[in-house]
Amino acid sequence: MALVIPTAYAAAIGTKMEATLLNQNTTRISRATAIVLLCAFIVYVYFQLRSHHSLYDDILEGDEQTDRDRRRDLHKPKLTVTESILALVIALTFVSLLAVFLVEQIEPLVEKGISDAFLGLILVPLVEKIAEHLTAVDEAYDGQMNFALSHVLGSSIQTALLNTPIVVIVGWGMNVPMNLDFATFNAVVLILAILVVGGFLRDGKSNYLEGVLCVFVYILIAVAAFYYPNFAVEAGVGESTSEAH
After folding, report:
1. Is residue 171 within 8 Å of residue 28, measured between CB atoms?
2. Is residue 240 scored above 70 in pLDDT?
3. Pair 219, 99: CB distance under 8 Å
4. pLDDT score at 238
5. Is the entire prediction scored with pTM above 0.90?
6. Distance from C-alpha of 101 to C-alpha of 96, rounded to nearest angstrom
7. Beta-carbon neighbour count of residue 241 at 10 Å?
8. What is the pLDDT of residues 38-63, one digit of tens each?
9. Cα–Cα distance between 236 and 53 in angstroms, integer?
């Protein structure tokens, strides 16, 4: 809801307000929204780690008992604390390098005709979260739905409540007018995805039919995003062509 409010405001006002003033107001709303989202993330972390951590522990411990591979996993050799820290450092290093290389290739890809929407909605999240996706699929296959949801929804909540507002606030500090005025297409897709997934999760259970339907929804979004035009790039091409004439 918070991520869509600035987009809804800008779309509702439209041409009724001067473009400069509309952009300023949208940026102010986005900054206020970013502050609220960060506060919500702090409350969420406190709720999960401090005040109600026992609730999460009970749920996840119950999931561990239903793991099909539990006996085999218990007999596997465990990493020491030092080995775990070293593995995390190595993994973070390679993930960071991968993110840097990916970001550097975004502009050339857009210039070659790959849409911004496809990169932002499909390609970047898929590469960035591939490990979590595979882990969630494995946990869902083993019947550990709470573990699977904690991985999938946890990363989504972190992106929505932490990463996105931090971008807005950092831009604010650098005097760069970053706002949450997304394209209407992105806002509508976000709402529809939340409704679909929320409907599937309402009964607390899942099956292969719901999983296949979720994959189909993802494919439909990917196809629409792939053909979504890059208006900024096209506008730049049009301007350069008119100048040449």
Report:
1. no
2. no
3. no
4. 40
5. no
6. 9
7. 9
8. 999 999 888 888 776 666 666 666 66
9. 52
